[in-house]
C-alpha cells in the first residue's frame, strides 16, 4: 500500500482549550454561559465576604456598646449606626400616654425595621448563587446531550462505530457537564455559608436590639446624653 494514499488521521486536542475550540457552536455557547456564570458567582462571593466581615465586627461592637451601657449618638455609617439612630429617633418621639412596654415595643420595631433594610442589602446577590447552583448542572447537561447527539450523527455519516469517531464529541459533551458542576458546587456551598453568616449577624443584632430597646424605654437620661453628644 502506498503510504501517500493512506488516510490522514485527524489529531484531536483533548486539553481544556482544545475541547472548547473544537466543540459544536451550541456546546461552545453553553460553556461560555457557564464560565460567565462562574465569574459572576465568584464576584458575589468575594463581595459578600468583605461586607459580612465588616457586619460581624459591627455586630460585636454594637453588642459590647449595648452591654456596657455606653453613650449612644447614632452617628456614623453601617448597620450599628443605622439601628442606633432609628432607636433614638423613636425614643425622642414619645407619647406621654403610652406605657413603658408600649414604648419599648415601638422603639424595638423601629430598630428592627432599620436592621431589615440593611439585612436585605446583605442578602442581595445570594439569589444568583442559588440560581447558579440549581441550574448550572442542567445547563451543562444540555450541552452534553447536544454533544452526544452530534456524536451519533457522526457515526451515521461515517458508518464507523469506532471509538476514534465518537470519542471527540463525547469528550466535548462531558466537558460541558464538568463545567456545570464546577459552577454549581461552589455556588451551593457559598450560598449555604453566606446565608448562615447573614442569619448569624441578624440574630446578633436582634438580641442586642432587645436589650437596647428595654434600656431606652426606661432610661430617662438617654435624651440628655444624646443631645450632649450632638
Write the SSE topology:
Blueprint: H1 16-22, H2 25-68, H3 79-92, H4 100-123, H5 126-158, H6 163-218, H7 222-229
Helix pairs in contact: 1-6, 2-5, 2-6, 3-4, 3-6, 4-6, 5-6
Describe the protein in words.
It is a single chain. With 230 residues, the chain is mostly helical. It has one domain (23-57, 74-229). Helix content is 81%, strand content 0%. It has helices at residues 16-22, 25-68, 79-92, 100-123, 126-158, 163-218, 222-229. Helix 1 crosses helix 6 (163-218).
* Number of domain units: 1
Helix-strand sequence: HHHHHHH
Compute the CA-based radius of gyration.
30 Å
Helix content: over 70%
Count of alpha/pi helices = 7
Proportion of strand residues: under 5%
Multimeric state: single chain
The biggest beta sheet is recorded as: none
The helix/strand class is mainly alpha
The overall average pLDDT, rounded, is 79
Distance linking N and C termini = 99 Å
Amino acid at each position: 500500500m502506498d503510504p501517500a494514499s493512506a488516510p490522514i488521521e485527524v489529531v484531536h486536542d483533548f486539553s481544556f482549550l482544545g475541547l472548547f475550540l473544537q466543540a459544536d457552536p451550541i456546546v461552545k455557547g453553553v460553556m461560555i454561559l457557564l464560565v460567565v456564570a462562574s465569574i459572576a458567582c465568584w464576584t458575589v462571593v468575594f463581595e459578600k465576604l468583605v461586607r459580612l466581615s465588616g457586619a460581624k465586627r459591627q455586630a460585636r461592637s454594637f453588642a459590647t456598646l449595648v452591654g456596657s451601657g455606653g453613650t449612644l449618638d447614632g452617628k456614623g455609617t453601617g448597620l450599628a449606626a443605622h439601628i442606633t439612630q432609628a432607636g433614638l429617633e423613636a425614643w425622642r418621639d414619645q407619647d406621654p400616654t403610652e406605657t413603658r412596654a408600649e414604648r419599648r415595643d415601638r422603639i424595638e420595631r423601629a430598630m428592627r425595621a432599620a436592621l431589615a433594610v440593611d439585612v436585605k442589602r446583605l442578602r442581595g446577590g445570594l439569589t444568583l448563587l442559588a440560581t447558579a447552583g440549581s441550574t448550572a448542572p442542567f445547563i451543562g447537561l444540555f450541552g452534553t446531550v447536544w454533544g452526544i447527539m452530534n456524536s451519533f450523527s457522526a457515526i451515521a455519516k461515517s458508518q464507523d462505530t469506532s471509538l476514534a469517531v465518537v470519542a471527540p464529541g463525547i469528550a466535548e459533551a462531558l466537558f460541558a457537564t464538568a463545567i456545570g458542576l464546577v459552577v454549581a458546587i461552589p455556588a451551593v456551598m457559598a450560598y449555604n455559608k453566606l446565608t448562615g453568616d447573614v442569619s448569624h449577624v441578624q440574630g446578633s443584632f436582634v438580641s442586642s436590639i432587645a436589650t437596647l430597646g428595654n434600656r431606652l424605654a426606661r432610661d430617662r437620661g438617654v435624651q440628655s446624653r444624646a443631645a450632649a453628644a450632638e
